[in-house]
Amino acid sequence: MSEDAEIFQQHFLHGVELFNAKEFFDCHDAFEELWMEERGEMKLFLQGLIQAAVACHHLSNGNTTGAISQYNKSLDKLRKYDDHYGGIDLKSLRTGLEHCLVGAETMLANGATYEVDPKYFPAMNLISQE
């Protein structure tokens, strides 16, 4: 693995750790640093992950309108990739994001705005790349 690839991987894994720690704002920043440098097919994937983090951040703060917008943008991008892409169990992540989207839509329809318990947010599960 090249030095650039190793650095990318370290930063990427840090973003995953932040997402899984429910530090969505910091996760957004970590993935955005990678996204700004990326030029290949990974760029759209990273943008989808950034939007997932932003959506979760919005929902965690009760901003259902912002969350719904970002969940839809994220899912539109992440559905373009295989179930296992970029070292992530993307199928599981998409399913979790879809559940959050439904929850946000339900909250909005009921005029409810409240902070969502972190246990309801999905995780980014790493997959073995053997």
Shape: elongated
Tell me the β content: under 5%
Helix and strand sequence: HHHHEEH
Helix content: 55-70%
| Major β-sheet strand ordering | 1-2
Number of strands: 2
Q: Any low-confidence stretches, pLDDT <50, length ≥5?
A: none
Query: What's the quaternary structure here?
Result: single chain
**What gyration radius follows from the Cα positions, in whole Å?**
14 Å
What about the largest sheet? 2 strands, antiparallel
Structural class: mainly alpha
Query: How many helices does DSSP assign?
Result: 5
Report, as a whole number of angstroms, the end-to-end distance: 14 Å
The overall pLDDT average reads: 93
General description of the model:
This protein has 130 residues and is mainly alpha-helical. The chain is 66% helix and 3% strand. Helix 1 packs antiparallel against helix 2, helix 2 packs antiparallel against helix 3 and helix 4 packs antiparallel against helix 5. The mean pLDDT is 93. It has a two-stranded antiparallel ribbon. The protein has 5 helices and 2 strands.
Give the helix/strand layout.
Blueprint lengths: L2 H18 L3 H14 L4 H19 L3 H15 L5 E2 L2 E2 H20 L21
Antiparallel strand pairs: 1-2
Helix pairs in contact: 1-2, 2-3, 3-4, 4-5
In short:
This protein is mainly α. The protein has helices at residues 3-20, 24-37, 42-60, 64-78, 90-109, and strands at residues 84-85, 88-89.
